[in-house]
Amino acid sequence: TIDSPGVLGNDTDADGDALSVALVSGPSFGALTLNADGSFSYTPDEGFGGTDSFTYTASDGTSTGNVATVTITVLNPNRNHAPEAKDDGYVATAETLLTVSASEGVLANDTDQDGDPLTAVLVGGAAHGAVTLNPDGSFDYQPEIGFTGEDTFTYQASDGSSLSEVATATIFVGSAANHRPVAVNDNYATTVDQPLTVPAPGLLGNDLDADGDSLTAVLFSGPQNGTVALSTDGSFLYTPASGFQGRDSFIYRIFDGEVHSALAAVTVYVNAAPPPAGGGGSVVDGGDDDDSSGGCLLGGAIRRVMQHLELARYGMEDDLLDSLAKDQNRGHHNRLDSLLADDRWQL
What we know:
The protein is mostly beta strands and 347 residues long. The protein contains two helices and 21 strands.
C-alpha cells in the first residue's frame, strides 16, 4: 500500500494545476487498486516473485500527459529457483555401446539453488546414434555403424517445478583401432610469489598413447589460487596468487586427434621462500659431498646455503641451533646425516 501522492509524487505540471491519475493497464501478476490522488494498493499473486508493472497517465483536468510505467519488484524467499544444467563430455568407441552410470551421468555436475532433487529430461537426440536417457542422468549411447567423430544430444534438468536451460552432452566417438590416450597426474613446486615456467613436453612428458599418436594438452579447469597458461605442447606458466602458500592444482586432459583422455591433475606446491643468509657462519666443504665429517660448522651455521648443500629449516628451535654452535666452538663436529635422520632438516 502506497499513500498519496504515490505515483504523482514525482510528476509535474508547468501551470501548477492539481493532478489526478487514470489507470492505463494493470499488472500481470497481481491485483491493483489505483486512486485518483496517486495512492494505490498492490497484492501479488500467491507464490509470485519477480518484477511486475502497470501504467497510468496524469491529468490536470484539461489535458492528459504521457503514459508512465510503475515497476514493482516482488521479493519472495520461498520462490523456487530453476536448476542449472552444465554441458558434459564423454568418450565412446565406434560401433560399441556406451553405458554411463548416474554417478557420471549428465546430472552429476548440475546444481539446484534450493537443493531440490533433479531429474534429466531429453530435449534432442543424437544425430549419429541412439540415446536412452534415464531420469537419474544415466544413459546409453549406441553410435551408428561406421561413425567416428563428435556427436551430441541435449537435455534439461528438472526440479519438479521448473526446468533449467538446455545443456549439451558431447560424445567423442573414436575408431575401434584407436586406443584412448592416458594422462598421468603431475607434481611441481615453486616458492611464494615465484612464477613456475615448465618447458615442453611439460605435463605431456609422462602421458601415454598406445598407438604412438601425437598428443596435445587441453586445459579443463584452472587453479584456485593462481593462474595458468597451458600450451598444447604441454608447456605451461603457473603464477601463484600474491602471498599464497600451500597446494594448488589445475585439471587437464590430452587429445590424440580422435578421443580425449580421462582427466588428470597437475599439483603445484607453493613453498615458503628460503630464509635469508645470516648469522656469520658457513658450511665448510672439507670432504666428500655426502659426508661433512671432514669440515666443521661455524658460528651460526645451518642457517645458510653454501656450495653444494641447500638446507631448509623446518621448525628447529633456536636453542638447539645455539647448542650446536656451542658444540662447534668446543671442537665438536655435528654430522649432517644425523641431523637429517631426525627429520628436522631437508637436504
